From TrEMBL:
Species per Swiss-Prot/TrEMBL record: Muricoccus vinaceus
The protein, known as: Protein-methionine-sulfoxide reductase catalytic subunit MsrP
InterPro entries associated with the record: OxRdtase_Mopterin-bd_dom, OxRdtase_Mopterin-bd_sf, TAT_signal
Class of this enzyme: oxidoreductase
Pfam family, one: Oxidored_molyb
Extent of the signal sequence: none
Gene that encodes the chain: msrP
Domain of life: Bacteria
Record-annotated Oxidoreductase molybdopterin-binding domain positions: 94-250
Origin organism lineage: Bacteria, Pseudomonadati, Pseudomonadota, Alphaproteobacteria, Acetobacterales
SUPFAM superfamilies registered for this protein in UniProt: Oxidoreductase molybdopterin-binding domain (SSF56524)
EC identifiers of the protein: 1.8.5.-
Gene3D superfamilies assigned to the protein according to its UniProt record, in alphabetical order: Oxidoreductase, molybdopterin-binding domain (3.90.420.10)
Record keywords, A-Z: Oxidoreductase
Transmembrane domains' residue ranges: none
Length: 313
């Protein structure tokens, strides 16, 4: 049986936000879904009704202006749809329904869950988070989703499981990038089970109060706000628990430049460029980069005994 426990900050939305704002957001959401449905000639996928919006969790204060939505959704890395930053037209072909996620490896019982089913078993919240690409650009986004620890709970890993791998969609008919056979498709990356259980690790299903657009990883992606963005797989189809440390897409391509832990550190340069500062999408302002992307208070203890390992890139 599923028991939902409200956290302290989870007031009913009507108690926290003026009703006109709530209704405005719902209308906007309805409009967005409606527009999509008109193009497809179908009702939107059922999970899209529940993927966003949600109450904002005030525990994570961004300390920066939210990036304008048009900037965060039009400057992307999604190599399956091409290597440029302008992948939106190509990514719109991504087939997002039906969507299932397989849980396997060292779990109590391997299984496959439909996205709609999965979303019924978690509590959605909104978090405004900083997102820092290894290429030294950054954005601040209101994401809708749920703590990754909830996904771990649903998967029921066995005690021998030490790492999690997120494998992402490989749709031959919609993703032209897959024809570039020298890339190690499907895109995947992972983390330790301890990291996945950390409160900062997040699974996003929406942004700006709407379901995730394809170019940002529809319908479901991972976020590790204290790591470089390449650790945040988009369009997840499989979650595997294992004993060995996995090798992700970028590490397979260029291990000397992209490591497993990839925590943000302004003092550890990428072999080809500095990480001391970052460019904010939208304003183009350059600001100093912060260690763990400013989330050290939440995540630094994860690495307390690992200072001799390559935890920075
Ligand atoms: N996930 C998949 N499946 N394919 C990708 O090419 N690029 C990664 C990550 N997740 C990528 C991916 C990189 S390099 C970054 S910086 C972020 O997604 C970018 O996320 P955004 O476009 O939402 O900002």
């Amino acid at each position: 049986m599923l028991i939902r426990i409200r956290r302290g900050w989870e007031l009913p939305e009507s108690a926290a936000t003026p009703e006109s704002v709530v209704l405005g957001r719902r209308a906007a959401l309805g409009g967005a879904l409606g527009a999509g449905a008109a193009v497809a000639g179908l009702a939107g996928p059922a999970w899209a009704q529940v993927a966003a919006p949600a109450m904002r969790n005030p525990r994570f204060q961004p300390g920066r202006e939210v990036t304008p939505e048009r900037d965060a959704t039009s400057y992307n890395n999604y190599y399956e749809f091409g290597t440029s930053k302008t992948v939106t037209p190509a990514a719109n072909r991504l087939k997002v329904a039906p969507w299932t996620i397989k849980f396997d490896g060292l779990v109590a019982q391997p299984r496959e869950l439909g996205l709609e089913d999965l979303l019924k078993q978690v509590n959605l919240e909104e978090r405004v988070l900083r997102h820092r690409c290894v290429e030294a650009w950054a954005m601040t986004v209101p994401w809708t989703g749920f703590p990754m620890s909830e996904l771990v709970r649903l998967a029921q890993p066995r005690p021998e499981a030490k790492f999690v791998v997120f494998e992402t969609a490989a749709q031959r008919d919609t993703m032209p990038g897959l024809r570039q056979a020298w890339y190690p498709w499907p895109y995947s990356d992972g983390c330790s089970v301890a990291e996945a259980r950390n409160e900062m690790a997040f699974i996003a299903t929406g942004m700006y109060g709407k379901p995730l657009p394809p170019q940002n990883g529809a319908p479901i992606r991972a976020l590790f706000p204290w790591k470089y963005g390449f650790k945040a797989p988009k369009s997840i189809v499989r979650v595997t628990f294992q004993a060995e440390q996995p090798v992700g897409y970028w590490e397979k391509l260029q291990a000397s430049e992209y490591g497993f832990w990839a925590n943000v550190n302004p003092e550890v340069a990428h072999p080809r460029w500095s990480q001391a500062s970052e460019r904010l999408l939208g304003s183009n302002e350059r600001v100093p980069t912060r260690i763990y992307n400013g989330y050290g208070e939440f995540v630094a203890p994860l690495y307390a005994n690992m200072q001799n390992e390559r935890i920075w890139y």
